[in-house]
Task: inverse folding
């Protein structure tokens, strides 16, 4: 195996991790990663001059993930909405907070810490499947909402409801696993 | 101004909606007015802003880190 192929193999697990986070289906994730590595092996010259192999590969992977989402659009769109509405748990019937949100303190204190970023990643992983997919499309693939609706053939309202739920859930997870404890970032 | 009165639950939904879409001016104004009078919702908005920055940091980390 060439050094280049070896380097690709080394990065494979990381690519697979993000492919799984995005697609929430191990087989589709394998396909996306194989497509990515194949594309890289076919065009190693495209890498020349790029500073980081990983940056380049993640860029290819993101395109391959969108391809997979297109290919499996029907299955993804037909996935039933998962996870209950957190709104009921957060608000009284009259629309007031049951419990006021906590002050999370200085954002920089948390953002500086790699541990916090890892907790965020774990929280994204724990999002229910469909919410996780949509959140990843928006925040990791950085697709516009119109594009997500088009690719998945879902309505904007449906998308907003799901993103709303995903973000509330993520917030809850960060609150429980970082800000509520004796996290070092807490001010 | 009852037309511009929003509950904390409504404002929370609008703050989240603003992550993906520009709000109509009336909703923007309603949120702004609510924030002046509420102690809880500004904290929620700050949490959402932190999550947005954290997502960006995570994205950059996923692309560049060597581990």
Result:
């Amino acid at each position: 195996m060439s050094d280049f192929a070896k380097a690709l193999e080394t990065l494979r697990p990381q690519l697979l991790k993000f492919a799984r986070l995005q697609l929430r289906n191990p087989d589709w994730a394998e396909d996306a990663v194989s497509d990515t590595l194949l594309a890289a092996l076919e065009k190693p010259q495209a890498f020349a001059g790029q500073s980081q192999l990983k940056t380049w590969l993640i860029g290819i992977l993101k395109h391959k993930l969108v391809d997979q989402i297109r290919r499996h659009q029907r299955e993804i769109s037909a996935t039933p909405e998962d996870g209950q509405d957190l709104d009921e748990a957060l608000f009284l019937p009259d629309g007031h907070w049951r419990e006021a949100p906590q002050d999370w303190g200085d954002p920089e204190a948390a953002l500086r810490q790699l541990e916090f970023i890892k907790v965020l990643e774990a929280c994204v992983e724990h999002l229910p499947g469909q919410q996780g997919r949509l959140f990843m499309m928006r925040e990791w693939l950085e697709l516009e909402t119109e594009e997500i609706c088009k690719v998945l053939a879902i309505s904007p309202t449906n998308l907003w409801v799901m993103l709303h739920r995903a973000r509330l859930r993520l917030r809850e997870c960060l609150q429980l696993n970082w800000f509520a404890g004796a996290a070092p970032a807490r001010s | 101004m009852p037309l511009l009165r929003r509950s904390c639950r409504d404002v929370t939904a609008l703050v989240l909606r603003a992550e993906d879409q520009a709000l109509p001016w009336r909703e923007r104004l309603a949120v702004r007015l609510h924030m002046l009078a509420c102690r809880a919702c500004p904290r929620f908005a700050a949490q959402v802003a932190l999550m947005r920055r954290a997502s960006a940091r995570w994205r950059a980390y996923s692309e560049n880190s060597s581990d």
In short: The interface with chain A takes residues 7-10, 12-13, 16-17, 19-21, 39-40, 43-44, 46-51, 53-55, 57-59, 61-66 of chain B (CB under 8 Å). The mean pLDDT of chain B is 93. Chain B is about 70% helix and 0% strand. The helical segments of chain B are 8-17, 25-37, 40-64.
